[in-house]
Amino acid sequence: MHNLSMRQQRIVDLIQQQEYCTIDGLSALFNVTTQTIRRDINELCAIGLARRHHGGVSLPATLTNRSFTTRSATNLSEKQRIAERVVQQVPDGCTLFLGIGTTIAAIAALLGNHKELRVVTNNFQAAHILAQHDHIETWIPGGKLRTNDGDVVGDNVGYFFGQFSADVGIISCASVMKIAGGARTPDLPPLEAEPTEFAMEHQLREAAVSQAIIAGAQQKWLVANSSKWQCKASARVAPLTVFDRIFGSANGAD
Known about the structure:
Helices cover 34% and strands 23% of the residues. It folds into two domains: 6-58, Winged helix-like DNA-binding domain superfamily/Winged helix DNA-binding domain (Arc Repressor Mutant, subunit A, Orthogonal Bundle), CATH 1.10.10.10; 68-247, Rossmann fold. The strands form four sheets. Strands 6-5-4-9-12-14 form a six-stranded parallel beta sheet, with helices on both faces. The chain has a three-stranded antiparallel beta sheet with strand order 1-3-2. Strands 10-11-13 form a three-stranded antiparallel beta sheet. α5 packs across α6 (102-108) and α8 packs parallel to α9. It is an alpha/beta fold. The protein is elongated. The protein has nine helices and 14 strands.
């Protein structure tokens, strides 16, 4: 059990809720100097409760994602704004691929007024929402349901998406990171030699499903709230240049 001050505990609570906080913002909130906040952050990082960034602090780096329920409670207003912008651009009568994630589920919740949609998704929460609408045809792959993540992933899921052709494919990601180019990603353009921003996932099987969605969609859209630019993940999905639309950015705008 760590002996945290009340302010340090509140900082931990805030980064759990928001995923990322700026030093200036915390300084203003607690009415203390930025040096005081940095000392707090240094102590939290030393015991593994936080991760430092230039100008801010986030959740500690992890090889796995937090639960769907926990992620659903973070950055709610920003995710809702992103979902509203996305849904405004989805045309009636289209075939739509939806990937995993809580922002994708928020998009599904707003699609009820669209006409004659065919939705193909491995996002169990999104499928559950869409199944309430008779006029939306919803397809989901078979396989093991990941209860922590609210989705289905596996070797057969990429094949399942490959049986369809979508007008629009929408994915989210665990993080957006600037990394150097490397080996060519299947079905995607060659990687740049210079460092470039990539959509990333925590696990290769998650990245593989997102790549299948990208490969089978005419329009490729990415949704990523501002905290994704402060997170870390290890499995490459695609460079941001692959996407026709990116909803959300490092500063919260399209």
